Amino acid sequence: MSRGIRINEWLLMYVLSVVVALGVSSVVVEATGGDWWPVLEALVEGSLLAPGRWGETLGVAVPLVLVALGTVISSKAGLVNIGQEGQLLMGAAFAVYFGFLLGGPGVINLVVVMMAGALGGAVWASVAGLLRFWRGVPEVLSTLLLVVVASQAVGYGLKQQWLLLEPGADRGNRNQVSQQLASGNRVPRLDFFGNQFPVTVFVAVVLALLVAFMLARTVWGMRLRMLGHNHMAAHRVGVSATSYGLAALGVGGAFAGLAGAAMFAGGGFSFGNYQLGPGFADNIGWTGLLVALVARERVLVVPAVAFVFAGLRTGAGFVNSTGVESRITEVVQALLVLALLLPPAVVFLRTRRQARSVALLKA
Amino acid sequence: MRGAGSHDSEVPVVELCGITKRFGDITACEQVDLTLHRGRIHGILGENGAGKSTLMKGLIGLVLPDAGLIRVNGQICAIHDPLIAAELGIAMVHQHFSLVEHLTVWENVALGESGRLNSTEVRRSIEEIVDLYGLEVDYDAQVGELSVGLRQRVEIIKCLCRDPDVLVLDEPTSVLTPDESAELFSTLREVVAEKGSAVGLVSHKLDEVLSVTDEITVMRDGRVVASMLTEQVEAGHLAKAMVGREVALSSLSQGSEEPESFKRVFKQQASPLRVGVAGVVDTPVLQLEGVTGRGRGQAMPLNNLSLELYAGEIVGVAGVAGSGQRTLADLLSSLVSLDAGRVLVNGTEVLAGKPGAMAKAGVAVISEDRHDSGVVLEMSVAENLFMATPHRVARCGVINQAQAHRIAREMINEFSISCSGPEAPMWSLSGGSRQRVVLARELAASPDVLVAAQPTGGLDVGAIEYIIECFQQAVTTGMAVLWISSDLEEILSLSQRMLVMAEGRIVGEMSKAEASLEALSELMDGGSQR
Q: What percent of chain B has pLDDT over 90?
């Protein structure tokens, strides 16, 4: 009665589903008049092999890791937060607003930006949290709908100079973007063999370790998990669903907000070039949610999965240059994401069936 | 003894030969043989996890045996689906009912039929059954609104409507009052007499198997350890076969000549230590004053309930299912809040419904449904042991893993919890071991009050014996025990004072001296007439 799946079984499943996805992708590419081999080559080149690309991929992975960590925390408490995209955008907006409002020299400003980002995400997620615990609004709905509100609110802010819009530039018909972060206030970048990446990479890894430790080895983490698994038992021993639930959503949102701030202050050309503008979040919130799903809520697996998803993103840029239509590239990308989601889904169904037979036995 | 004549001459209706079933490393059934004859009730007796239920599930196609074969009316059958079993005329009344609460009685009976739903026809067939066996039931009532006893009646009607040759009942009396059980058994007798059906009765209760069956098969650890005609059986011998050693238990008390060491233990503490030092009357450790409040879901609300519990006594709260016992336990688990009344622990008011308030005040609970609020299946044994008092093994909010494992190992040894270690996931433990984990955790908090809600439900005699021993030990240290149960004999033999609960209130109190099974039973039923 082993509930655990052996590692080679996992590998086999992943290899199989990726191969199938690549097969279907190649058929799609060929059918639409493209060549599948160059597409595949471009994907690998663009994410790993071409000069400077793996650094780029690392940089993209940072916000994905942060978003996924927050998602894991919320879902450990049994809450389904799917509004990371909006929380991330709000985080970025807070980071921009407070970063320029408070100013300050280099590193201090950077810290302000990061903290403001976390605050923004936390506030946005807490709106859903308050609705959930005061009025019983399902957090699945509220977090999702707040994504739309966030994007409208930030859009409004980007039209107001006293909020986010770059000051002194009121000529008409221009992009509504924020001021650009001064070069001294940006996240420092490291250079390895021509690969540049922001130091937030290390921050993300440290945070992943920290979250893993917190969930597994602290009383708070244990009580949070208890709440997620059995809220009755948790209630009886004194875990308040309201305070722990609010905290879990808030911290989850803070991570998404931090991701937004990290994209703003350290994303470089991958994300808005140190400026907040329309379409800034660029699906990083949604992708981060997928990362958490594929990692099946295991914190230490999150960075690896995030790197793979980041690779799909950076690789797609190169695929576009092969002349294949961008819609088709997106189909290929989506198929590969599906391939990564399939094994966890299969295992989920299998454990559930197994659990049922165990229950039958115990009955 | 009441069977339909000699059964050697005819082909048995069901023959199970060498049935073996494994779930992973666990062997549920090993080479089990069992024969059911027409017109006879066959008791399948054994402790929890002995493989009784698995065996029966194999017969009706819910479990596919790994080896062995099944003959129905002499023909070898592959029953890999309950539908096949139904076609062969085998029906089962499950331990956990398979009724849809939101549907009416007749709709539930019709469930599983194919073709057009003809309500008049279904009602007519229900009426036939009702007339034949006197099973009164309102077939337009919603099942969710019926008492547990009535639900089981519906379940039985559902089976009988299909006119089965073989009727299997899995622990049918675990939710019934003594009167309801007696009624059930007389119905079974009628079914056997009228239709000549074969009945398989799965149970872990010795006395009921002894009183209603014609033949008995005893299972232990997945094997048949004894098989005999009921008239030739001795109770003591049967208990020994079932557990594998000598046992002393009150549930044998009906008509058996063994007063048991069990009872002797209880007599040693005849009177509660209500009068403290210097003759001053103690304050009760637990006091409920006119508590009124809704229960969770469909549970009976509490209706102006008052009770007092003093240090060092065991007080039994008797009542049928649906009398509000569950809500009382929920109240003391902080799971429900109150509309009126107060709860005082050691003279201090405790806010009902506030997370962890009762536990913090010193009220430990062994809950009726372990999986509901007792354990977290997905977490480890160690975590389950410390979830109420994590600060015992943590410093500054960080859990000291080495210390946690050391203490957990001590508790595992002390309470003989069978598991692979402190890190074993809770779901990998058997029901009895899970209950021991709960017990270990709740006692470790050294509470003032221990609330035990149906603590022996679904447990085998060995585990029950152990739990009772623990409670005995606990009261000697001044702990007070509130024993909430629908098992009257258990309450009678254990408690020094008995309260009877009905309709969310305490309707009567008796001392050990004046209490009897009949008196308690009368009070319980009197209160439950609705």
A: 16
Q: Please report how the helices A139-157 and A84-102 are oriented relative to each other, as an axis angle in degrees rounded to 10.
A: 40
CB B230 within 8 Å of CB B206:
no
pTM passes above 0.80: no
User: Concatenated DSSP letters for B433-469?
Assistant: HHHHHHHHHHHHT--SEEEEESTTTT--HHHHHHHHH
Q: Is the CB of residue A359 less than 8 Å away from at least one CB of chain B?
A: no
Q: What average pLDDT does this structure show over A327-355? A: 82
- At residue B167, the 3 state secondary structure works out as strand
A232 to chain B, any CB pair closer than 8 A? The answer is: yes
Cα separation, A112 vs A100, in Å, equals 10
Helix (H) or strand (E) holding A259: helix A241-266
Chain A residues near residue B334 by CB distance under 8 angstroms: 235-236, 238
For A139, the 3-state DSSP assignment is helix
The distance of B107 to chain A (nearest Cα, Å) reads 26
Q: Which residues pair with B500 in a beta bridge?
A: B318, B508
Smallest CA–CA distance, residue B407 to chain A, in Å, is 16
Better-scored residue on pLDDT, A209 or B505: A209
List the single residue in B96, B355, B399 with the smallest CB-CB distance to A239. Answer: B355
Interface with B, mutate which of A214, A215, A223, A232 (most B CBs under 10 A):
A232
User: Smallest Cβ distance to A358: which of B357, B391, B427?
Assistant: B427
Look up residue B445 and give its amino acid.
A
Exposed e or buried b per residue across A118-139, where buried means at least 16 C-beta atoms within 10 angstroms of its C-beta: bbbbbbbbbbbbbbbbeeeeeb
C-alpha to C-alpha distance for B152 and B185, rounded to whole angstroms: 12
Q: Which residues contact A243 (CB under 8 A, 6 or more apart)?
A: none
Cα gap B178→B175, rounded to integer Å: 10
Min Cα distance B150 → chain A (Å) is: 22
Helices (H), B39-147: 52-59, 82-87, 105-110, 119-133
DSSP B209-275: HHHH-SEEEEEETTEEEEEEEGGG--HHHHHHHHHSS----GGGTTT-S--HHHHHHHHTT-S---B
Q: How do residues B146-175 score in pLDDT, each as one tens digit?
A: 777 788 888 888 888 888 889 898 888 776
Contacts of B401 in chain A (CB under 8 A): 217
Tokens of A261: 């701030």
Does the beta-carbon distance from A218 to B394 stay under 8 Å? yes
Residues B355, A238: C-beta atoms closer than 8 Å? yes
Q: Which residues of A touch B359 (CB under 8 A)?
A: 236-238
Residue B387 DSSP one-character state: S
Q: pLDDT tens digits for B363-399? A: 999 887 777 888 998 899 999 999 888 888 888 889 9
Token pair 């014996």: residue: B465
For B248, counting Cβ atoms within 10 Å of its Cβ (0-12 exposed, 13-18 middle, 19+ buried), the class is middle
Main-chain phi, psi angles of B80, to 5 degrees: -110, 10
ipTM > 0.85, yes or no: no
The whole-angstrom distance between B278's CA and the closest CA on chain A is 37
Cβ neighbours of A74 (radius 10 Å): 31
Bridge pairing between strands B314-318 and B497-502 = parallel
Per DSSP, A165 falls in state: B
